[in-house]
Design a protein that fits this description.
128 residues; alpha+beta; 3 helices; 4 strands; 29% strand; globular
Length: 128
């Protein structure tokens, strides 16, 4: 093993990782609060890969700009997690869909978690 490989992110088998359901619920809740403008995106940084985090920062900035243009004050979103569907295409990878119902509409949040360095990290997130 080279020095670079030794210090790179190490995949962790699924059996050595905690149940992903609580993390999926918390991430969904946190992301919706970030997009509503009531939570700082930095609070979620440790749970995301670099690319997914940059994507969330970009979407958060666009949401803030849209709120500012319309003159809308950030408000805590009210929603209910209706269901959570989890599948494991390969070891140490979880793909999930979280169905979230709010007062105006129901959304799906698609999340891909990968087991790296003995914990789950979100490598992709999409709000549909």
């Amino acid at each position: 093993m080279t020095l670079h490989e030794y210090f790179a992110r190490q995949p962790t088998p699924t059996v050595e990782l905690p149940d992903p359901a609580p993390l999926l619920r918390s991430l969904t809740h946190g992301v919706l609060e970030v997009l509503a403008g009531v939570r700082e995106v930095d609070q979620l940084a440790r749970w995301f890969s670099e690319d997914a985090y940059r994507s969330l920062v970009t979407r958060s900035n666009l949401s803030a700009r849209a709120r500012s243009a319309r003159g809308v004050v950030p408000a805590r979103p009210s929603f209910e997690i209706r269901s959570l569907r989890i599948s494991a295409p390969v070891d140490s990878v979880i793909e999930a869909v979280v169905i979230v119902a709010g007062p105006g509409r129901t959304r799906a949040v698609a999340v891909r978690l990968e087991g790296l360095d003995r914990r789950w990290r979100a490598t992709s997130l999409a709000i549909l």
